[in-house]
Write a structure and sequence with these properties.
Elements (H helix, E strand, L loop, with lengths): L1 H23 L3 E10 L6 E9 L7 E8 L7 E5 L5 E3 L2 E6 L2 E8 L3 E8 L3 E3 L2 E8 L5 E9 L5 E5 L5 E4 L5 E10 L5 E8 L19 H4 L3 H32 L50
Parallel strand pairs: 1-11
Antiparallel strand pairs: 1-2, 2-8, 3-7, 4-5, 4-8, 6-7, 9-10, 10-15, 11-14, 12-15, 13-14
Length: about 300
Amino acid sequence: MRRLLIFAILMTSFLIPYNVNAQDIVQIDQMEIDIWPEYDRPDVLVIYRITLSPDTSLPASITLSIPASAGQPNAVAYENVNGGLSTMQYETQLDGEWLEITFTALFPKLQIEYYDPSMERSGDMREFDYFWNADYAINDLVISIQEPVNASDFEIKQPVDNSFQLPNGLTIHENSIGEVAAGTPVSINLSYVKPDDTLAGLQPVQPVEPIPEQAIGFDLQNILPWILGAIGLALLLGGGYWYVQTTRARSRPKNPRRRHSSRRASGGQPGKSVYCHQCGKGSVQGDTFCRSCGTKLRIDG
């Protein structure tokens, strides 16, 4: 019994370092964190676009933390071989002010989404603090922040490397942070003024310029006489063609009936066969001489 207890302790001592090392081999090669305040909800939509390092062995068990106030994540998915997103099974566990999401990654590209309700509002002023909990090491981290629709005085306290406008008119601010070690948190603070509750994700698509009336349709009142004239001309041509064809058909002579007459040989009776008295060959009605030997036929009168 004592030997069995010692063996169990030794096995446990070997397993604990193995689990720690298995957690350490998970590394993120590229990660983009999208922060979209008031996009399709009054909260802040946060999207993690993750590409695992080639050194990460798949399948890999991964645990990421999101604020507990966010509740369950909106999406936990991976990019499949067709380039689309497929949902993954996951488990959650509360750890203080954080909610741990655990799942098994079978593919290197992952996407996690959640809505953070912690934005502070004071009249038209909005302020939001984002915090990355540094669950894993990242080789290249980029944080992308999208301005809400109708926002003004948009300010990010951290340095911004690039800003550009999307085709829908919204502005994106990018902060290329680069390499981030595991256990090194990253925070972003942003503020802006917004006089209404309009959401960018619910805006109808509007043309950049008004569409001219000619491009939308045509004036039926102006084009109707032309349509009626074309129909009348078609009827006139069709009627003329029908009249000509009908006239030609009437003027053609009818096929004469075949008349079957029994041609009689000179002095002979109709329908009676005559045979040559010299060679015995039959003759055709109306023949005077045999067609075979040329002898004059004897025709009964």
